[in-house]
């Protein structure tokens, strides 16, 4: 009986996927040639123009985390047999290197789709009406996946995982290396600051572009948003010092 129930559920899911895909295909088939071209141009331009910044963020953080992990790991090895403050330094470098390695690993395990998803879209054929409609469906799919990945990258699960790793780093400093709680809190604070910088510097253009697309072409309610939605860095020199930061 359980086997038959499983088969019925699987069949229902498969049927739902077929009907959903058919509905999207039918919706696209009802569009005029001009509508297909306009929508495809909007999506293709949005995806391709956002890709360089997405690559810079993704590859940049992987490289940064990896370099930090290697440097801190090397410093930990060089100073490990020393005593006093040098020993504390070696322990801090080991913990910091481990958290950076986990950061790089996380970005590799969960790749940032806007950095590579649009690759190949421009090379898809669009010489016939059928090819253009197929390309439009593919562009819509890529845009939705990119927006979903951006949302997940700023979601509570990501914050929770980072918080857990950084709290563990602080606890290792205190419990494993027998250091004061104040130093464990410093370790946590530094690691969490880097994690938050990673999260809030993540590009978020796909979410804005998808919302604009749905408002303009799919009739969804909302306010069309012009301009750049990604965070921007600023730097200024003034009497008495300098200032820099990030607006998001």
Detailed description of the structure:
Helices cover 74% and strands 6% of the residues. With 248 residues, it is mainly alpha-helical. It has 2 domains: 1-30; 39-247. Strands 1-2 form a two-stranded antiparallel sheet. A hairpin with a 2-residue loop joins strand 1 (232-238) and strand 2. Helix 1 packs across helix 5, helix 5 packs across helix 8 and helix 6 runs antiparallel to helix 7 (181-200). The longest helix has 47 residues, at 33-79. The protein is elongated, with a radius of gyration of 24 Å. It starts with a helix and ends with a strand. Mean pLDDT is 85; it is low at 1-26 and 233-238.
SSE diagram, text form:
Layout: H1 2-29, H2 33-79, H3 85-109, H4 113-116, H5 129-153, H6 156-176, H7 181-200, H8 205-217, E1 232-238, E2 241-247
Antiparallel strand pairs: 1-2
Helix pairs in contact: 1-5, 2-3, 2-5, 2-8, 3-6, 5-8, 6-7
Low-confidence stretches: 1-26, 233-238
Strand content: 5-15%
Instruction: Give me the secondary-structure category.
Output: mainly alpha
Strand order of the largest sheet: 1-2
The total beta strand count reads 2
